Amino acid sequence: MSNANPLLQDHSLPPFSQIKPEHIEPAVDQLLSQARAELEQQLENLGQATWDNLVEPIEQRDDVINKAWSPIGHLNGVQNSDELREAYNSCVVKLSQYSTEMGQHQGLYQAYQNLAVSAEFNQLSQAQQQSIHHALRNFRLAGVALADDKKARFAEIKQALSKLSTQFSNNVMDASQAWYKRLDEVNELQGLPESQIAGAKAQAEAKGVDGYVITLDIPSYLGVMQYAENRKLREELYRAYVSRASQNSFRLDEDQGPWDNSGLIEQTLALRHELALLLGFNHYAELSLATKMAEAPEQVVSFLQQLAEKSRTGAKQDVHELATFAAAKGLVGELQAWDLAFYSEQLKTEKYAVSQEQLRPYFPAAKVCQGLFAVAKKLFGIDIEQQEADVWHPDVGFYQVSRNGQAVAYFYLDLYAREHKRGGAWMDECRVRRSTEQGLQLPVAYLTCNFTPPLGDKPSLLNHNEVTTLFHEFGHGLHHMLTQVEVAAVSGINGVAWDAVELPSQFLENWCWHKDVIPMISEHFETAEALPDDLLDKLLAAKNFQSAMQMLRQVEFALFDFSLHLNYQVDEPLPVQAVLDQVRQEVAVMVPPSFNKFQNSFSHIFAGGYAAGYYSYKWAEVLSADAFSRFEQEGIFAPAAGQDFLHSILEQGGSREAMALFTEFRGREPNTDALLRHSGIGGGN
Ligand code: ZN
Fold this sequence. Notes:
Strand 7 and strand 8 (439-441) form a beta hairpin. The protein is 55% helix and 8% strand. Helix 6 runs antiparallel to helix 10 (262-278) and helix 24 (639-650) runs antiparallel to helix 25 (658-666). The longest helix is centred in the middle third of the chain and has 32 residues, at 297-328. The protein has helices at residues 21-44, 51-78, 82-103, 106-116, 126-141, 148-178, 194-207, 218-227, 231-242, 262-278, 284-289, 297-328, 340-352, 356-359, 365-380, 464-481, 503-509, 518-521, 533-543, 547-566, 576-587, 603-606, 616-634, 639-650, 658-666, 673-678, and strands at residues 180-183, 212-215, 382-387, 397-403, 406-416, 426-431, 434-436, 439-441, 444-451. The protein binds zinc ion.
């Protein structure tokens, strides 16, 4: 059996057409048990730990597992089936068990420690040393260095936190789904676009009732908040939405709900704090920063406060403009929380008169890709050429990336939405660059989008948001593909601090807003004309609509998240609402009504990976805007700036600290000026 299993054979690229769901579990089982056995044998015979006898075999085994697993995970996302999903799900459990086991392996930890203090360590390359530092850090964060009684408590807390997080997100889902509103008459939905009304009708049919149904699902909720002229309806919907998973959650009868997350939040914060103390940190905020570019909690707080301060005047102007506009449109009384989206949408349309749909004819997918590759060539001197390969769908392209005539990487490009493909856009790793006994293994990436496919003779046409998405994912791809690092753990995007990992992606987005680049990436599919300047101008103006208000909102969320984890007091925890009120007092220009319990559905931090890390969104934006500002000074395709970005950032992966790399590229530490200026905030020019 194993001989015929394509996942157990050594291929330079995944044999997509041969992979069948029945190959998956046997392959994963065999690889994992082999890896476990080899590790025990390796440690038994180890003697003095060296790079060659300790790390190299581990990297080799991990690579074999990754190379078998990567196409499975990828197919699960882009070519799903019931059989595949089932095999995938059971293997995900096995792989995560394996990785927990490795992270808590006492003997392995000991061996890494020995290597770190050995005479050889100082002879190792920067990348090798960094990978050992990271490994030791990850062992400690996994609790391996704890005394036995503490280790048991650590495991208990981890398990409890994982349950709390699942419960939190289930509560949000249940509370959201319990609520819906049925309307008899279509005129109650006045103002909504046709497609939204059709959606409400379909919802009613799905529920087997007459009329129209609106729900708390994002498309339905936003549709009403942005377009419904019926103010009472907007208010009712807003109240339901911001009360989800709180004691005021809507409930049909006393037996259900209210799915109140308040208690779970308190428990989560207490356990996170205890976990941080166990690992020797002062609080959870410090634990969170252990894997990030930001060095100290004070740095994060003052960073956020600075953004808030600089955005406040602009945000007040945004609110004032909106209130004036709403009054002129006949709004009676004060502008309320449930009026914001409604009047903002109208104001935006009147001010800029440009819609994303209008832009599509100018951006055929093929032209955009061609332009994107040309941009990458001008910036980084790389050539991209399509090649034949075994792919999972006829629409998928395979490309070779070369520098000075030499292949350095490959990528798959899967642009179009289709059935059984997960929504959204992402870059993922297929192969990582590393040195092996057989020579250098080149990196391979998957770039996945969900654009509208070509229809008949009509090519696939992108709106500008989608063009931006493509540049963004390609930026991640370049980070993975242009690395020069040969140690897998810090090669490409591996080992990069996660508040810095969005730097190359957001950085590259800047090029699709530039007037010198527009002719490279746009060509009307009928007239062959590039996007006219006046449309680009409108697009640029619309980009910064209410940007100060948005900035303050994000800062409010980030400061709330960070303060909760930073200022936690064991004896007398401050009520969560009090922390939120205090943050709002400090930064918000429009304080939401007191029944707003957004924290009870803040899944990013209570059911996702963003605890004491929500600031990362803004942090990475600062880095990318500041990096781009060098090109504004030196020229959009300035060769020196392009080469420096390539050498100091893209080639380095996680082999050095993100701050050191940024400083090397920019000649100084990052600051917020460029982001504020690009957002039209802070009296910049
Ligand atoms: Zn990204």
